[in-house]
């Protein structure tokens, strides 16, 4: 352990979370090639095979699963130590983990979740991978399925619907072109859908879901987006009906040991209120009255 840079283990966790090198490399500020070399070096130093490598990305071997479990617990412990050390010098920190699109919508209404006079800090952790709370890596998470972990508490917040969207001013040819994330980054069902159903029509791919929205707004083609994103963007229109097979529930998840902390409870209650008030919007029923257009 002492001869292996701790950064290798941090990168290993990132590769596991992203399911490949690109996202992990971007997160750590290195190239995918460098990330790949570091993972090979980690395997050589440990004398164990950690990954199954394929065109679809990186998946863990049984030994990789063991290391991931050990490191997840270790990182959770270190984070709690950091929190403990900082308690005297800084307000309490509440960590909120969610996906790209919930982060996008909530950030536009952040005043409903975090207020100037709150006696705590809020940290937003954004990613497509499942929000991890079992080892208290985060305090609050939004998931698309009910947690199976016995030490987590969950509250259902409604359902999320998806549909294809295009720019209102898209040229005719662009209305037949599809935009998707790369296969390696297609973690969620809605991200995989174009590759499974419209592979021959995909003209543009991006490594991040957020970039799909930029491309659609620019009139480059059609992309599958959550209705709560597409229906609130005045630049976009639906390019087809709701895709029923992509609909899924949405859960607010807390760790049992943290859900009675006053700061965590306050943020969780505000978040639940925010999302329940927009239940029809999330379900694709176009009930939002404060529609807005991204101009960034």
Question: Would you write up a description of this structure?
Answer:
GO terms for molecular function: DNA-binding transcription factor activity; sequence-specific DNA binding. It holds the Pfam family LysR_substrate. Belongs to the LysR transcriptional regulatory family. This is LysR family transcriptional regulator. Keywords: DNA-binding, Transcription, Transcription regulation. By secondary structure, the protein is α/β, with parallel strands linked by helices. The protein has three domains: 6-70, Winged helix-like DNA-binding domain superfamily/Winged helix DNA-binding domain (Arc Repressor Mutant, subunit A, Orthogonal Bundle), CATH 1.10.10.10; 91-160 and 247-282, D-Maltodextrin-Binding Protein, domain 2 (3-Layer(aba) Sandwich), CATH 3.40.190; 162-246, Periplasmic binding protein-like II (D-Maltodextrin-Binding Protein, domain 2, 3-Layer(aba) Sandwich). It has helices spanning 6-18, 21-28, 32-46, 62-86, 100-108, 189-197, 209-217, 227-230, 262-277, 279-282; strands at residues 51-54, 57-60, 92-98, 120-126, 140-143, 152-160, 162-167, 178-181, 202-206, 223-226, 236-238, 248-255. Strands 4-3-5-12-6 form a five-stranded mixed β-sheet. The protein has a three-stranded antiparallel β-sheet with strand order 10-7-11. A two-stranded antiparallel ribbon has the order 1-2. The longest helix is centred in the first third of the chain and has 25 residues, at 62-86.
Question: Strands across the major sheet, in which order?
Answer: 4-3-5-12-6
The CATH H-level superfamily of the largest domain is: Periplasmic binding protein-like II
CATH architecture of the largest domain: 3-Layer(aba) Sandwich
Spans with pLDDT under 50 lasting ≥5 residues?
A: 287-296
Distance between the termini: 45 Å
């Amino acid at each position: 352990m002492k001869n292996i840079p701790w950064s290798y283990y941090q990168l290993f966790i990132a590769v596991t979370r992203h399911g490949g090198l690109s996202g992990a490399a971007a997160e750590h500020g290195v190239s995918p090639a460098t990330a790949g070399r570091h993972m090979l070096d980690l395997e050589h130093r440990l004398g164990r095979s950690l990954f199954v490598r394929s065109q679809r990305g990186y998946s863990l071997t049984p030994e990789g699963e063991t290391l991931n479990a050990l490191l997840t617990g270790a990182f959770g412990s270190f984070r709690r130590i950091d929190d403990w050390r900082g308690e005297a010098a800084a307000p309490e920190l509440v960590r909120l983990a969610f996906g790209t699109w919930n982060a996008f919508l909530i950030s536009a209404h952040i005043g409903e979740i975090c207020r100037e006079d709150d006696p705590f800090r809020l940290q937003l952790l954004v990613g497509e991978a499942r929000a991890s709370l079992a080892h208290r890596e985060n305090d609050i998470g939004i998931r698309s399925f009910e947690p199976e972990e016995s030490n987590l508490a969950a509250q259902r917040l409604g359902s999320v619907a998806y549909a294809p969207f295009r720019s209102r001013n898209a040229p005719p040819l662009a209305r037949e072109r599809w935009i998707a994330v790369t296969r390696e980054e297609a973690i969620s069902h809605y991200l995989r859908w174009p590759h499974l159903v419209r592979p021959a029509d995909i003209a543009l791919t991006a490594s991040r879901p957020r970039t799909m929205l930029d491309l659609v707004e620019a009139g480059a083609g059609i992309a599958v987006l959550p209705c709560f994103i597409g229906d609130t963007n005045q630049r976009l229109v639906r390019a087809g009906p709701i895709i029923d097979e992509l609909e899924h529930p949405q859960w607010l998840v807390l760790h049992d040991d943290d859900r009675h902390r006053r700061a965590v409870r306050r943020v969780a209650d505000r978040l639940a209120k925010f999302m329940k008030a927009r239940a029809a919007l999330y379900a694709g029923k176009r009930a939002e009255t404060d529609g807005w257009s991204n101009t960034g």
